[in-house]
Every structure is written in C-alpha cells, then in structure tokens.
Design goal:
alpha/beta; Thioredoxin_domain; Alkyl hydroperoxide reductase; 36% helix; 18% strand; two-stranded antiparallel sheet; 185 residues; Glutaredoxin; disulfide oxidoreductase activity
C-alpha cells in the first residue's frame, strides 16, 4: 500500500512539474516572440540584404567609430549587449573564443554595449574581451533598432558581409558552439 501511495505522489509531483515546465516554456516563447516595438519615424530597421546602416558610435575612450569602416574587407559580427543582461553575459566567453579563432582575416567581432561607459568598464575588468567594444544608450532609436532589432530584446547579433550588407540577424544568446556555424557568411 505504501509503495502505491509513494508512486501516486511521484506521479502527481511529475505532473505538476510538467505543468510548470509547460507554463515556463509558454512564457519564455512569449518573451522571445514579443511583438515589435514602435519604431520612431525616420528609423528604418535593417533586414538581410540591406546595406549596413551608417552608424557612428563612441569607443570606450569616447572616440567616434563608423561601423562601416571597421575591419575593411572582412565580415563583421556585431553583438548588441548590456552589462545587466544575463544571457548577454553568459554568451560573451563564447564570442571571445570565436573572436580569437578568427585571426587577422576572419570575422571581426564587435560588441555594441547599450550601457553607460562606467558600467561597461567595470564589467570588462571582471570579464575581459579582446574584441572592440562600442557604446550606445538604450532607446527607441538605438543602434540595435537600426540593425533590425524591433523587439528591444538582448542579446541581438548581426552578421555583416565583407561587402557591408546584412547577411543574417539573431535575437537571443548563442548556445555553446553555435556562433561558429552561424557566422559563416
């Protein structure tokens, strides 16, 4: 009798866990499939095949950098992130590893931080990366929106070909090992 009771309790617990997992999954999918936010007039979010928008952002020293002038003749992987974004932080070691593997003629990784310079510097002291980091302030017309992120979620990554045309866009973090396959132009 006790065995049957225990099995019954295990079955009920498993059922409850299944219901909770289903609820979590639906909520997660709703976040991933969040509706597009209102895009300000004059902002045209890029799509695959479009030219890289003419964006100039400051580096960590405040010097302006035009995105289309970075790593001439090489593809760019532009990763939009923030120090307060958990999934962004989790994928950074994978992006750093990928960037190191590229050498001088592979894909150039560039981080676009939607954050304050102080928060980014503090973060990079704890989690250093070797690829360039540029800054922008989050908002309805930040760099990620121009690059096609109309949902306002992070991380957001764009692969730009050597011809400076958008190849593909990704909303959400990279799984381990995914970035290398995804970034093949």
């Amino acid at each position: 009798m006790r065995v049957v009771l225990r099995l019954g309790l295990v079955a009920v617990a498993a059922g409850l866990l299944g219901l909770m997992a289903g609820h979590w999954y639906r909520a997660w999918r709703a976040g991933v499939e969040a509706p597009a936010a209102a895009v300000p007039q004059g902002v045209r979010p890029a799509r695959p095949g479009d030219a890289l928008p003419e964006l100039t952002l400051p580096d960590l020293d405040g010097r302006p950098v035009r995105l289309d002038t970075l790593a001439p003749g090489r593809p760019l992987l532009l990763n939009v992130w923030a120090s307060w974004c958990g999934p962004c932080v989790e994928e950074m070691p994978e992006l750093e590893r990928f960037a190191r593997e590229q050498g001088d003629d592979g894909v150039q990784v560039v981080g676009l931080a939607l954050d304050s310079p102080e928060a980014v510097r503090d973060f990079l002291r704890r989690v250093p990366v070797g690829y360039p980091i540029l800054l922008d302030q989050p908002g309805p017309a930040d760099a990620s929106v121009w690059l096609g992120n109309t949902r306002g979620l992070l991380p957001y990554t764009v692969l730009v070909g050597a011809d400076r045309r958008i190849v593909r866009q990704k909303l959400g973090p990279f799984a381990p090992g995914e970035v290398g396959r995804w970034a093949r132009p």
